[in-house]
Amino acid sequence: MTLTLDPTDLDALADRVAKKLSASLRPSLPKASAVAAPAKLAFSIREAAHLLSLGERTVADAVASGAIASTKIGRLRRINRAELERIAREGI
């Protein structure tokens, strides 16, 4: 599966993904008695699709074809943050 985008569309998509990633990865401010949670390192296909503004099926197909690198942890498939940043820069 090949996704082609106009360079201006790709830049806009990369900006949107970068903003969503930075917002979702920004650590929460700790409460007085709580410890701040670490930044999330891996995302489900559903989460990745949401962050990339793509359909889940599109992301799942790209994972299945190897266009998006992922890791299987038990029965779960996860896409790491660096891979999402790569997709935001380069596209699928």
From TrEMBL:
GO terms for molecular function: DNA binding. Residues 43-90 form the Helix-turn-helix domain. Transmembrane segments: none annotated. Pfam families: HTH_17. This is Helix-turn-helix domain protein. It comes from Pseudobythopirellula maris.
